[in-house]
């Protein structure tokens, strides 16, 4: 049996307190085997980003536990979380979050600089089809191009786990496929566990596992016996 | 390869160059003042020391009536004395063509051959005197300059009752006469006291002192020997009419220069740190706000796995570039400005040369204070950001929670339009930010208000001294103490309205180890023209067994009202009195003390004597009164209060006090810098919001109103706080400017606060206009894109 990349037990997250408190996660129990390609679906505000942030080491849970392999994320110190992100995690944010004062290439270098075994920044940009835009600043890129830089940045470090929050939301089908191909490569070539949040239900067809989220919890989990390749996906 | 973070750093610096420069310049100006002042003080001190040393200024001065030359051997034999020399000095009156009043002067002998061993003179023009020609003299340069006299001119003077004509063969400077004052006056005036050097032979003849001297000069090897040398000299010279030997410290000119430099040192130690602190405070606030604005990017960098230490290092490079850049620029500016100022002061103090001495400590203090302030502000902000998880720090422009700021009741809603409500909400929503901005602008306002108040304090000092304490029009000093019926003769003069007796005596005031050598003024009780007044301008009553001190003196002697002190009168039969301090009189000029005249005379055993008089006159009769006084043989000098007042004003405007104008200018600069920085930061923080407002249809004016309204609110709230703070600050600044020569009172001056307030408003309007211009020109799309 393969080891679980992530396990959570009764994971909760509450924003704010008192009357205005928002229960973004209401006790999530989850197992994600290492090396899988996982797609998270769910309506807006259901807590998908929140879950990603917590198991990505970017935020802290209010209650419950979460493990990465056999290490308990919810018990880690800030320093350990930093180490975890630095060594294992690649992140594509829902909002592209590029450094406005760095070029596309430099934005990628920001990550390869501290990673242990990265690919070159140029190679990462090539994987998302942006080699010709390497020296442009974010303000000179379209929304989709910015998103692809963000993806190049995430995969450049050859991460153990890759989190993508709506990586294709702003992309046309052609570039969307390029991006998804790059993500699948990372998954298949490097054996990285990939977690993708998306509203494009069709993307689910290329996943090993599809998790439906609703109202701060998991509604159901679907295992795909056959995966489609990105080229076969209907947009 | 340059790391991407460093490239980000450079580009960020370039992006915020205007802001960075504005911050740096405020720091630079604060640093400049510190570096400039300490360089100035050190150079002047060093120059003075070098001048004294090169021209061998004596350590001990011992005036006598007449002592034969052989006594010098005994003086030289005193333990600790390394050189002793005798010379002749005497008073003289120089007739100035075109003026009714003769000018008082001092004649000083020079050896027949060459320079004296002590108190050498520097010949700045002309040639040395020839001992065979007794009419040849050297004239003090400052006096010659004041009267347009040059080598080759002639001059007539009365010495020892005889009027003679002299030829000025050379113009000289001497460390002994950097400052000169006519006897009985407090404020130096180059034009009203001359110094003449003549050959020893000529002086012996003029003052009837063949083979004798009337002043001994001594050099001592070690400063610690001074008290014992003074005592020994007094013992040896007692038989020759010694008045009492004194050290260089009590020499008039030196005391004056030393006080001036001490004044500069005090104001350089007391005032620039306040300025630097204000600049540092601003730096602290601005840096912390700057980093707050970087919150998202910090969260992002952390999300990639950069450690807190790496992020801190990155941002410290940024803020240290700004802070240290400003500090280094300030050091350079300070050096340049210091060099200019030193030149001015070297001339003013009449040093013939300059020893430039910089103060490395000031650089270190200035740079480290700036860096520390920036680092502190940086750490403060970073710590707060680090306390957030990266996910929270990174959250895209979180619509801030305005729910707590009230829904504004129906009434308010009707009164306030939408933009106004936005201004208020923004203000209340970020209380820390708003308070920080108010504190910053208040500090700027306080600095200017404090400086303006101190400027008013200087004027108050002149006013109090010459209108409240001294209400006479002129004072007359006699050649020797005279019976008080002389005053009747003065009162008889046509146009003299009021005459008041005075007697000024040299004294040493002692309280245990504290002592002060100065003068005591005997005034009559119920005096109306020259009075001892309290802080409210009310005359203090004198008591026969008492003495009234001034605050500076009470401070030096560590005395309070009711304490006793010993008063050694250094004239006549030299009585030693045990007196009680009956009051502390207001005095802003010098450190006088007052006794009841009859009591003073009783102590001396010389009843009904006066050494001078204060006069109130009919201004229309002034010239006739001058002429009449000049014709009286007993009159040694006349001092017109208006002249003294002008001289005092000049001294405050040219000497150490002149720094107040420099500092006021620097204060204004810093204040402007603070206001401008506040406006820029507010703009940087809201550029995105303003663009959004524009996009949804607000006009440029309406959008700018939201920004400028916030700025206006900050400034309006800062004004009263700054005025209050400034009033407090003015006490510290005034203390920094006060010296033994004059005290600067800290007063409450609404005018000054008003002027400072207007300056802050003007700065705010200008800054607002600058950022509005920028906001109007801003490209909407890039403004919106600038934050992801
Ligand atoms: N910092 C926060 N403070 C308060 N509530 C928050 C905060 N962040 C998220 N929430 C709330 O938590 C809930 C879950 O948010 P989350 O971002 O995880 O949703 P999501 O599933 O990613 O939605 P979307 O598909 O729109 O991105 C939402 O109701 C949101 O309003
Ligand atoms: Mg989301």
Describe it for me?
- The complex is a heterodimer of chains A (235) and B (788).
- Chain A has 235 residues and is an alpha/beta fold.
- Chain A is 28% helix and 27% strand.
- Chain A has six helices and ten strands; from the N terminus they run E-E-E-H-E-E-H-E-H-H-H-E-H-E-E-E.
- In chain B, strands 12, 13, 14, 15, 16, 17, 18, 19 and 20 form a nine-stranded mixed β-sheet that branches. In chain B, strands 3-4-9-6-8-7 form a six-stranded mixed beta barrel.
- Chain B starts with a helix and ends with a helix.
- Chain B contains 24 helices and 20 strands.
- The complex binds adenosine-5'-triphosphate and magnesium ion.
- Adenosine-5'-triphosphate binds next to strand 2 and helix 1 of chain A.
- Adenosine-5'-triphosphate is lined by residues 15-16, 22, 24, 42, 44-50, 94 of chain A.
Which structural traits does this protein have?
heterodimer, A: 235 residues, alpha/beta, 6-stranded mixed beta sheet, 4-stranded antiparallel beta sheet, 6 helices, 10 strands, 27% strand, B: 788 residues, alpha+beta, 9-stranded mixed beta sheet, 6-stranded mixed beta barrel, 20 strands, 19% strand, elongated, binds adenosine-5'-triphosphate, binds magnesium ion
Query: Rg of chain B, please?
Result: 33 Å
SSE string of chain A, helices as H and strands as E: EEEHEEHEHHHEHEEE
> Could you give the count of β-strands of chain B?
20
Oligomer: heterodimer
The geometry of chain A reads as: globular
Q: Helical region count of chain A?
A: 6
Radius of gyration of chain A: 17 Å
- The helix tally of chain B amounts to 24
Bin the strand percentage of chain B. Answer: 15-25%
Query: Percent range for helical residues of chain B?
Result: 40-55%
Query: How many β-strand stretches of chain A?
Result: 10
In whole angstroms, how far apart are the ends of chain A? Answer: 34 Å
Model regions low in confidence, pLDDT < 50 over at least 5 residues of chain B: none
* Helix-strand category of chain A: alpha/beta
pLDDT averaged over residues of chain A = 88
Largest sheet of chain B: 9 strands, mixed
Mean pLDDT of chain B: 84
- Content-based structural category of chain B: alpha+beta
């Amino acid at each position: 049996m393969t080891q679980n990349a992530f396990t959570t037990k009764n994971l909760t997250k509450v924003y704010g307190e008192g009357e205005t408190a928002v229960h973004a996660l209401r006790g999530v129990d989850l197992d994600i085997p290492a090396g899988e390609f996982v797609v998270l679906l769910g309506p807006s505000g259901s807590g998908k980003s929140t879950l990603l942030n917590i198991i990505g080491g970017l935020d802290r849970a209010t209650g419950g536990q979460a493990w990465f392999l056999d290490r308990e994320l919810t018990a880690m110190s800030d320093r350990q979380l930093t180490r975890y992100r630095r060594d294992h995690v690649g992140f594509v944010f829902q909002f592209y979050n590029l450094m406005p004062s760095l070029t596309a290439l430099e934005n990628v270098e920001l990550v390869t600089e501290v990673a242990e075994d990265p690919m070159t920044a140029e190679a990462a940009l090539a994987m998302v089809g942006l080699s010709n835009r390497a020296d442009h600043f974010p303000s000179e890129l379209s929304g989709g191009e910015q998103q692809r830089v963000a993806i190049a940045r995430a995969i450049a470090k050859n991460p153990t786990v890759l989190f993508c929050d709506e990586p294709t939301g702003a992309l046309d089908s052609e570039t969307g496929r390029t991006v998804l191909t790059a993500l699948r490569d990372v998954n298949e070539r490097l054996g990285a566990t990939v977690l993708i949040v998306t509203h494009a239900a069709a993307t689910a067809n290329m996943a090993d596992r599809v998790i439906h989220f609703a109202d701060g919890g998991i509604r159901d989990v679907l295992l795909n016996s056959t995966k489609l390749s990105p080229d076969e996906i209907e947009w | 390869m340059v790391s991407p973070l460093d490239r980000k750093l450079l580009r960020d610096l370039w992006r915020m160059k205007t802001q960075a420069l504005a911050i740096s310049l405020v720091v630079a100006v604060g640093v400049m003042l510190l570096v400039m002042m300490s360089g100035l003080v050190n150079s002047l001190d060093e120059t003075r020391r070098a001048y004294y040393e090169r021209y061998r200024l004596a350590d001990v001065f011992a005036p006598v009536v007449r002592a034969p030359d052989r006594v010098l051997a005994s003086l030289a034999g005193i333990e600790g004395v390394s050189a002793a020399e005798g010379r002749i000095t005497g008073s003289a009156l120089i007739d100035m063509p075109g003026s009714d009043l003769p000018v008082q002067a001092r004649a000083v002998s020079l050896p027949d051959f060459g320079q004296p061993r002590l108190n050498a003179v520097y010949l700045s023009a002309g040639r040395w005197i020839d001992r065979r020609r007794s009419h040849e003299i050297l004239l003090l340069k400052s006096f010659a300059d004041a009267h347009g006299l040059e080598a080759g001119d002639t001059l007539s003077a009365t010495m020892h009752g005889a009027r003679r004509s002299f030829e000025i063969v050379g113009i000289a400077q001497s460390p002994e006469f950097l400052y000169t004052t006519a006897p009985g006056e407090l404020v130096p005036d180059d034009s009203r006291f001359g110094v003449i050097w003549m050959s020893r032979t000529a002086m012996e003849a003029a003052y009837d002192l063949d083979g004798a001297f009337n002043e001994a000069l001594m050099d001592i090897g070690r400063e610690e020997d001074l008290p014992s040398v003074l005592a020994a000299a007094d013992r040896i010279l007692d038989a020759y009419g010694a008045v009492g030997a004194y050290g260089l410290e009590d020499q008039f000119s030196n005391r004056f220069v030393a006080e001036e430099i001490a004044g500069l040192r005090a104001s350089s130690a007391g005032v620039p740190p306040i300025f630097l602190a204000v600049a540092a405070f601003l730096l602290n606030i601005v840096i912390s706000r700057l980093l707050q604005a970087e919150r998202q990017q910090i969260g992002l960098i952390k999300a990639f796995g950069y450690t807190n230490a790496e992020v801190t290092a990155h941002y410290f490079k940024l803020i240290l570039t700004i802070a240290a850049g400003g500090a280094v620029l300030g050091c350079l500016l300070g050096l340049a400005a210091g060099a200019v100022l030193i030149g001015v002061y070297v001339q003013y103090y009449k040093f013939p040369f300059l020893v430039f001495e910089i103060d490395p400590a000031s650089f270190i203090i200035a740079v480290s204070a700036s860096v520390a302030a920036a680092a502190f502000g940086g750490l403060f902000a970073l710590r707060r950001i680090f306390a957030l998880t990266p996910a929270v720090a990174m959250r895209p422009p979180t619509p801030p929670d305005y729910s707590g700021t009230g829904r504004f009741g129906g009434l308010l809603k009707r009164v306030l339009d939408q933009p106004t409500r936005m201004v208020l909400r923004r203000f209340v929503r970020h209380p820390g930010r708003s308070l920080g901005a108010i504190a910053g602008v208040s500090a700027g306002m306080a600095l200017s208000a404090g400086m303006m108040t101190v400027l008013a304090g200087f004027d108050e000092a002149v006013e109090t001294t010459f209108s409240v304490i001294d209400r006479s029009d002129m004072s007359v000093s006699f050649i020797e103490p005279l019976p008080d019926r002389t005053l009747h003769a003065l009162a008889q003069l046509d146009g003299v309205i009021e005459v008041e007796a005075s007697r000024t005596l040299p004294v040493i005031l002692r309280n245990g180890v504290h002592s002060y050598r100065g003068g005591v003024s005997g005034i009559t009780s119920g005096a109306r023209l020259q009075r001892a007044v309290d802080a409210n301008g009310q005359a203090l009553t004198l008591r026969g067994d008492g003495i009234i001190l001034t605050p500076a003196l009470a401070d030096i002697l560590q005395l309070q009202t009711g304490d006793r002190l010993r008063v050694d009168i250094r004239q006549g039969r030299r009585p030693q009195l045990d007196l009680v301090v009956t009051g502390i009189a207001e005095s802003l000029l010098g450190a006088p003390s007052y006794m009841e005249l009859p009591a003073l005379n009783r102590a001396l055993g010389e009843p009904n004597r006066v050494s001078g008089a204060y006069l109130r006159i009919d201004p229309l009769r002034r010239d006739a009164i001058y002429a009449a006084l000049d014709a009286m043989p007993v009159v040694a000098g006349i001092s017109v209060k208006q002249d003294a007042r002008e001289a005092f004003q000049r001294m405050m405007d040219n000497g150490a006090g002149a720094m107040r104008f420099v500092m006021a200018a620097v204060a204004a600069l810093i204040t402007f810098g603070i206001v401008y920085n506040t406006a820029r930061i507010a703009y940087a923080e809201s550029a995105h919001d303003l663009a959004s407002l524009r996009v949804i249809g607000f006009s440029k004016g309406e959008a700018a109103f939201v920004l400028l309204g916030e700025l206006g609110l900050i400034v309006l709230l800062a004004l009263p706080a700054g005025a209050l703070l400034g009033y407090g600050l003015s006490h510290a600044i005034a203390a920094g400017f006060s010296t033994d020569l004059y005290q600067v009172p800290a007063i409450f001056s609404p005018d000054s606060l008003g002027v400072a307030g207007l300056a802050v408003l003007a700065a705010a309007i200008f800054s607002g206009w600058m950022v509005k211009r920028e906001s109007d020109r801003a490209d909407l799309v890039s403004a919106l894109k600038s934050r992801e």
